[in-house]
């Protein structure tokens, strides 16, 4: 029976990736080893995030050195965990983290051919109120077997080999694409394994939800203002869209991916490049959206075509259901013409 098969034929994320990679005869398992270290980092952060409240509640912080680590801000702790896990994988050569001003160049003895860009705990300002937060990551292959330089991570998002996020919420869900569609895995704490729960995720072609911080409306440009207005007062007589905005990118994007709709962090007069970071927020989420049949646009171009020049560069982003993003592309194209 299917149910039994599910129970006894556990499709863990490691097995899933191994299956996918064996389709490449030349692959030597390096990518699978790299991913297994990212998964390890996510498992650690999941437990740390879940216990953070408890540590505070029980006043554990400060009593013994075990809890001392909880005094360290969770995002700093998460960053250290991911850096250590990625370096120890022996498969990376450059790491870019939202937490570190400079890129990490892995020592030659432990160097591999992959570059990982990541935000270890995106939305961490939401931890204290229990809102879902997450890790976002993208993986590049270094340009060629030479001395690693920043050029190996300043590649357009379309060059990414894989991207994903892990959301720490009511459950711990890891959503991943290695360029052949999008799959979601949920952590089974009793097994300590991520199990395939959302095979082949496809975003609805059109959605009924728009997701933006309306508090910035005063500073939006014309096309964004017109688009949001059309969500609230549709000219074609259709019903208005619902507004859902959590303020944690992983949570807002995960809902958009599963339910459809559009997520926007536009440019505004105060921040001409918007707020979200290209390498480890915009690119990974845009990669996933395209792989799920949606699209991602910066207001000027396809998000994945953008070529970053700095590792912490920002870009405006409109991503989600194909037809919804198409609407905002038309408005920016019309403005170009005027
Ligand atoms: P705002 C969280 O701080 C974050 O980086 C993203 O996770 C989130 O989408 C965005 O900022 C929220 O920004 O300006 O709406 O609070």
Summarize the topology.
Layout: H1 2-8, H2 13-21, H3 30-57, H4 65-71, H5 74-89, E1 92-97, E2 104-105, E3 111-122, E4 133-141, E5 162-168, E6 172-177, E7 183-188, E8 193-198, E9 209-211, H6 222-232, E10 242-243, H7 249-259, E11 262-265, H8 278-291, E12 295-297, E13 317-320, H9 322-337
Parallel strand pairs: 1-3, 9-10, 9-11
Antiparallel strand pairs: 1-2, 3-4, 4-5, 5-6, 6-7, 7-8, 11-13, 12-13
The protein binds 6-O-phosphono-alpha-D-fructofuranose.
Task: Describe the protein's architecture and organization.
It is a single chain. This protein has 338 residues and is α+β, with helices and mostly antiparallel strands. It has nine helices and 13 strands. Helix 6 links the parallel strand 9 and strand 10. An eight-stranded mixed sheet has the order 2-1-3-4-5-6-7-8, with helices on both faces. Strands 10-9-11-13-12 form a five-stranded mixed sheet, with helices on both faces. The chain has helices spanning 2-8, 13-21, 30-57, 65-71, 74-89, 222-232, 249-259, 278-291, 322-337, and strands at 92-97, 104-105, 111-122, 133-141, 162-168, 172-177, 183-188, 193-198, 209-211, 242-243, 262-265, 295-297, 317-320. 6-O-phosphono-alpha-D-fructofuranose binds at residues 122-123, 125, 213, 247-249, 252, 275.
């Amino acid at each position: 029976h299917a149910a039994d098969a599910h129970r006894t034929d556990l499709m863990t994320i490691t097995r899933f990736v191994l299956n996918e990679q064996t389709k490449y005869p030349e692959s030597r398992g390096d990518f699978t080893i790299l991913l297994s270290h990212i998964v390890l980092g996510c498992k650690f952060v999941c437990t740390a995030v879940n216990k953070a409240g408890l540590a505070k509640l029980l006043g554990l912080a400060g009593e013994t050195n075990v809890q001392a680590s909880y005094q360290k801000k969770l995002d700093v702790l998460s960053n250290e965990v991911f850096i250590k896990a990625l370096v120890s994988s022996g498969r990376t050569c450059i790491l870019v983290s939202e937490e570190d001003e400079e890129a990490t160049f892995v020592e030659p003895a432990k160097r591999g051919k992959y570059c990982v860009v990541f935000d270890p705990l995106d939305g961490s300002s939401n931890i204290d109120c229990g809102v879902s937060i997450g890790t976002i990551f993208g993986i590049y292959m270094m340009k060629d077997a030479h001395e690693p330089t920043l050029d190996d991570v300043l590649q357009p998002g379309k060059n990414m080999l894989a991207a994903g996020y892990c959301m720490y919420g009511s459950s711990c869900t890891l959503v991943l694409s290695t360029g052949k569609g999008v799959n979601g895995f949920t952590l089974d704490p009793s097994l300590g394994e991520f199990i395939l729960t959302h095979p082949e995720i496809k975003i609805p072609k059109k959605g009924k939800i728009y997701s933006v911080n309306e508090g910035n409306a005063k500073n939006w440009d014309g096309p964004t203002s017109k688009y949001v207005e059309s969500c609230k007062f549709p000219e074609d007589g259709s019903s208005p869209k619902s507004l859902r905005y959590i303020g944690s990118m992983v949570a807002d994007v995960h809902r958009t991916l599963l339910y459809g709709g559009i997520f926007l962090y536009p440019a505004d007069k105060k921040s001409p490049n918007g707020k979200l970071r290209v390498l480890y927020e915009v690119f990974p989420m845009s990669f996933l959206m395209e792989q799920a049949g949606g699209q991602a646009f910066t207001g000027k171009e396809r998000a994945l075509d953008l070529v970053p020049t700095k590792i912490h560069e920002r870009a405006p982003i409109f991503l989600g259901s194909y037809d919804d993003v198409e609407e905002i592309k038309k408005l920016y194209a019309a403005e170009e013409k005027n």
